[in-house]
Amino acid sequence: MEYIRFVQKNTQLLMEYGHNHLTLVLWAVVISLLLWVPVGVLITRDEKWANRVLGIANTIFCVPSLSLFAVMVTIPFLGLGRRSALIALVLYAMMPLVRNVYQGVKSVDPSVIEAARGMGMNSWRILWEIRLPLATPVIFAGFRVTVVMTTGIAAVATYIGERNLGRLIAEGLTRFNIEMIVVGALLIAGIAIVLDTVLGGLEKKMVPRGLRVRRG
């Protein structure tokens, strides 16, 4: 009952924080797709660059989220707030997106590529008409991981001035307010589950059943 009363008493605040959290996640995901999917495709053409880019992506991903947010704040034109949070989330999305795009494109059966070349298709036609369509399941799996991961990490952005659901957890810990902590955590988890469910439905429509990546 305490949790229900807390929600009823703070409905407007929860809606504001929820809206801020969701928009931050969506912007980060959209920018990440526009940036990292092309990078993932380009590095498939050069193994040396692929190793370098994937190494950078893995290194960034290993940096603790709070540390990366703090580094963003120190950059003069970013400072506290959404811009720093957005760039940090986009950097975190680099690893799952670039890696899955790269692995998906590179994992296409070489015999299929040879057959396409035998039919007179050039490299770009092979990429757009064969490699990318066959790589779609792996790319989509990386996309779903990115969305869920970004939803969780976005909560840490509250420590650099972002007014989102992470603030409920942070303030709840400071005040030792169990209701704030639980409600904040459940709302963040709920957003992640809803987004992943929507993407799952989209995946079923876009990817043929025989090509889907099984999720454990």
3D structure, described in words:
The chain is mostly helical. The protein has one domain (2-207): MetI-like (MetI-like fold). The protein contains 9 helices and no strands. The protein has helices at residues 2-9, 11-42, 47-62, 65-74, 82-106, 110-118, 123-153, 166-175, 178-206. Helix 2 (11-42) packs across helix 5 (82-106). The longest helix has 32 residues, at 11-42. The chain starts with a helix and ends in a 10-residue tail after the last helix.
Count, helices: 9
Number of E-state strands: 0
The rounded Rg comes to 20 Å
CATH fold-type name = MetI-like fold
The share of residues in helices is over 70%
Order of SSEs: HHHHHHHHH
Instruction: State the name of the first-level CATH class.
Output: Mainly Alpha
Helix/strand structural class = mainly alpha
The shape, in one word, is elongated
Q: How much beta, percentage-wise?
A: under 5%
Unreliable stretches, pLDDT < 50, 5 or more residues? none
Q: How far is it from the N-terminal to the C-terminal residue, by CA?
A: 35 Å
CATH superfamily label? MetI-like
CATH architecture: Orthogonal Bundle
> If you average the pLDDT, what whole number results?
86
Q: Main sheet, how many strands, which sense, barrel?
A: none
The domain tally reads 1
Throw out a few tags for this protein:
216 residues, mainly alpha, MetI-like fold, 79% helix
Which SSEs are present, and which pair or pack?
Blueprint: H1 2-9, H2 11-42, H3 47-62, H4 65-74, H5 82-106, H6 110-118, H7 123-153, H8 166-175, H9 178-206
Helix pairs in contact: 1-9, 2-5, 2-7, 3-5, 4-5, 5-7, 6-7, 7-9, 8-9
